[in-house]
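Re-run with default settings, no changes from the original entry. Doing this only to confirm the output is reproducible before filing.
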Amino acid sequence: MKHKIKIIILSILYTLVGNTPILANELDVKIDEEIGFVDVIHNGEKIRIQRNQNTSNMINSEYAQTSRKCPPFCIQPISLGHGVETIGELEILKYLEKISNGNNSIIVIDSRTKDWVKKGTIPGSVNIPWKLLKPEAGADPFQIADILEKEFNVMNIEGLWNFSKAKTLILFCNGMWCGQSPSNIKTLLRFGYPAEKLKWYRGGMQNWEILGFTTVK
């Protein structure tokens, strides 16, 4: 009971004063030794990302299943190669924070289909379903070009793609058993997208849920 009262009081204080390092230190379950939470903007609304404070909390049942038919749900390698960096939770939080602080050269992409996104996604991410960038999955070439230009800031100069001002893309899907974001990354590399501007959050929603992080629907 005392623990619940403490959390309620903290929630009220957060609402009143916003980001306060002292209050972050009061959290029982922090992100790391120094970070208690990260505030991001999702669809124009301020969302606080933190871990679930209930130390008895269990993983979302959507991610409790241990075995899915492979293919297509096969375990992905730790690295996709070609210079694409594989990142973890602390790194993706830093990117989300940069975006929320006005850095528009970065975009965090949920590559999953909309039925999965409706169950919860990472605050601050945008949903671009993997099939929209995959010619082999029926994606329209004009639609792909539209996404490259309008979403990723790729320039089309006399029919050739110019990636000099292209955004850094951080892609994720359901986790280490999901091939949707890896498929998009491989496709983008084939288009000529610079590998150093592609980051992969391999753990995806599986790890995000395991760690009790905030999600939005």
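Residues 69-210 form a domain with the Oxidized Rhodanese; domain 1 fold (CATH 3.40.250.10). Residues 1-22 have pLDDT under 50 and may be disordered.
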